[in-house]
Write the structure tokens for this entry.
Amino acid sequence: MQKPSHHIFVCGSFRMNGTPQGVCAKAGSMQLMQYLEGELADRGMADVLVSSTGCLKVCDRGPALVVYPENWWYGRIDSEEAIDAVIDSIESGAPADEYVIA
Ligand code: FES
């Protein structure tokens, strides 16, 4: 297996205690994940891996995702425009400041 250059963890609102869906899933994070994967493919960024996660504990700023290895925490990723900004940040090497939450 070849290690990915980047790994994007998208909050899927999963909770260990079985609590119903949280903020990010209700706000469409899983649907945006499909757009994210499609856009990465369109840009030829096959070395960027996308995974869904449990609650990232920043619900008040969701939908949220994290980009590694940079450790960029993004919030309010609720549109294709926001996803494009995240991908642009990976390509450029500079964080998308308007969506950075940590
Ligand atoms: S549900 Fe996404 S951060 Fe909590």
The first strand starts at residue 6 and ends at 14. Helices lie at 23-26, 29-42, 80-92.
